[in-house]
């Protein structure tokens, strides 16, 4: 059921997605994360939120409080892409952590409750994501709940968050009879059997054909209005080809001019595959986002692109104490980090040795020899780095987060 409309990557970095899941508490962020990890094969145990066995909520304090406090990054694979999922806290008390996570993301999935629609914390986290220019797609979750209504939820997105929600699915069945969706791009239905992990694909049910055509038309009109390049094709033929539509949705997502909306029920494991397809299709790779800016040793602002050959620079966005020692999560912005190498904390001028480089997966950590620009990894070794520290090549200091600097950066060369 993978759609060829979306295959586009040519180099390893274009197939990386650094993503976060943003939501109001209880909208289903943890459940969506769990389902993604299950589906992408990184864990075979389906942890449920209520029994404290979920993979991303591994900190005991989180389990005790039942909310996701600390961000953790987990890697998984989907359709030839590597998705680094950065868990962002949804609780308003942890706004700093949300902001720090947003800083290292290239894109996000905003999860909404299909009954409650946009809630206060979804609104505040949405505004923070606006500030950091994080492109987003939306997932209206809990369509199986009594009172769930996609149109009402989308209306609340339109009124409170974004004027241009672009709904790409039509639900099949409502509330506890919600069984699948019509994919409006390909005009195919996806139906999930009870307990089944993957959808059965088929034609659009006769009873929904008129409605699906009407919604496809609405989507095309909205896209043509927002994306001038599509307008010509639309005016000439009064319809957009699926390929143009997909390209336009990608551009609109990345420019922030439109928000693709999908729906499902994470709890019942419905809608997660198309959500992952949309995430890799529409959200940007590390090469598609602007160069990162920082302050060089002479006090001037510098830019670094995601070039593995450039001097190394990375932002530590999370430090976890684990039973086997301190793990520092890094977003590598430029250069290449090699196991055993010595790097410098640009804020404190301390040098730190990188012992191990780990790709954190839900079920196990994989050890790497190096990490390149664009990637998210955890490293063991640094003793003093904290969330917000910049680690960089000692010969080319760059400070990525000036707010956390205690002293000016000077050369140690
Ligand atoms: P978070 O606070 O955003 O991480 O939300 P959770 O994933 O912890 O979900 C909050 C509650 O909603 C839990 O009891 C979930 O079992 C439940 N939940 C999550 N997704 C769905 C869904 O699709 N349908 C229904 N009915 N309940 C869900």
Uncertain runs with pLDDT below 50, 5 residues or more? 43-71, 403-413
The chain-level structural class is alpha+beta
Q: How confident overall, as mean pLDDT? A: 85
Q: How large is the radius of gyration?
A: 22 Å
Label this structure with key terms.
413 residues; alpha+beta; 8-stranded antiparallel sheet; 9 helices; disordered C terminus; binds guanosine-5'-diphosphate; protein biosynthesis; nucleotide-binding; GTP-binding; Elongation factor G; elongation factor
Ordered list of secondary-structure elements with their pairings:
Blueprint: E1 16-23, H1 29-39, H2 60-65, E2 73-78, E3 81-87, H3 95-104, E4 107-113, H4 120-131, E5 136-141, H5 150-160, E6 165-167, E7 169-172, E8 180-183, E9 188-191, E10 200-202, H6 206-226, H7 228-237, H8 242-255, E11 259-263, H9 272-282, E12 292-296, E13 301-304, E14 313-322, E15 325-334, E16 336-338, E17 342-345, E18 351-353, E19 356-360, E20 365-368, E21 370-372, E22 376-380, E23 390-392, E24 398-399
Parallel strand pairs: 1-3, 1-4, 4-5, 5-11, 6-11
Antiparallel strand pairs: 2-3, 7-8, 8-9, 9-10, 12-13, 12-24, 14-15, 14-23, 15-22, 16-21, 17-18, 17-23, 19-20, 19-22
General description of the model:
- The protein is an alpha+beta fold.
- Helices cover 26% and strands 29% of the residues.
- It has helices at 29-39, 60-65, 95-104, 120-131, 150-160, 206-226, 228-237, 242-255, 272-282; strands at residues 16-23, 73-78, 81-87, 107-113, 136-141, 165-167, 169-172, 180-183, 188-191, 200-202, 259-263, 292-296, 301-304, 313-322, 325-334, 336-338, 342-345, 351-353, 356-360, 365-368, 370-372, 376-380, 390-392, 398-399.
- The strands form 5 sheets. The chain has an 8-stranded antiparallel beta sheet with strand order 18-17-23-14-15-22-19-20, with helices on one face.
- The longest helix has 21 residues, at 206-226.
- The chain is globular, with a radius of gyration of 22 Å.
- The termini are far apart.
- The model is unreliable at 43-71 and 403-413 (pLDDT under 50).
- Bound molecules: guanosine-5'-diphosphate (GDP).
């Amino acid at each position: 059921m993978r759609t060829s409309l979306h295959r586009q990557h040519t180099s390893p970095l274009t197939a990386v997605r650094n993503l976060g899941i943003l939501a109001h508490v209880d909208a289903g962020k943890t459940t969506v994360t769990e389902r993604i990890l299950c589906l992408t094969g990184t864990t075979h145990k389906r942890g449920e939120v209520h029994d404290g066995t979920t993979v991303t909520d591994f900190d005991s304090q989180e389990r005790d409080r039942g909310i996701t406090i600390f961000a953790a990054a987990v890697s998984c694979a989907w359709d030839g892409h590597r998705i680094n999922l950065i868990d962002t806290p949804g609780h308003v008390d942890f706004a700093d952590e949300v902001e720090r996570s947003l800083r290292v993301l290239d894109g996000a999935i905003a999860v909404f409750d299909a009954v409650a629609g946009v809630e206060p914390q979804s609104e505040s986290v949405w505004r923070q994501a606006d500030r950091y220019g994080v492109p987003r797609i939306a997932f209206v979750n809990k369509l199986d709940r009594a009172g769930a209504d996609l149109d009402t939820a989308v209306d609340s997105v339109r009124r409170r968050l974004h004027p241009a929600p672009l709904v790409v699915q039509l639900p099949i069945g409502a509330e506890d009879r919600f069984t699948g969706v019509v994919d409006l791009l390909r005009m195919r239905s996806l139906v999930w059997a009870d307990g089944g992990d993957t959808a059965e694909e088929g034609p659009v049910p006769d009873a929904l054909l008129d409605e699906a055509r009407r919604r496809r038309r609405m989507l095309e009109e909205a896209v043509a209005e927002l994306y001038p390049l599509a307008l010509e094709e639309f005016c000439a033929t009064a319809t957009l080809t699926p390929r143009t539509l997909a390209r336009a949705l990608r551009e609109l997502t990345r420019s922030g001019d439109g928000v693709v909306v999908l729906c499902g029920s994470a709890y019942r494991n419905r809608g997660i595959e198309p959500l992952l397809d949309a995430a890799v299709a529409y959200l940007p790779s590390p090469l598609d986002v602007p160069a990162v800016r920082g302050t060089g040793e002479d006090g001037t602002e510098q830019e670094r692109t995601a070039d593995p050959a450039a001097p190394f620079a990375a932002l530590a966005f999370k430090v976890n104490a684990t039973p086997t020692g301190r793990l520092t999560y890094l977003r590598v912005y430029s250069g290449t980090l090699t196991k055993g190498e010595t790097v410098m904390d640009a804020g404190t001028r301390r040098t730190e040795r990188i012992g191990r480089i780990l790709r954190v997966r839900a079920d196990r950590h994989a050890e790497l020899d190096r990490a390149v620009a664009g990637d998210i990894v955890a490293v063991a070794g640094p003793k003093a780095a904290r969330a917000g520290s910049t680690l960089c090549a000692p010969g080319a200091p760059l400070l990525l987060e000036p707010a956390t600097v205690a002293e000016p950066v000077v050369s140690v060369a």
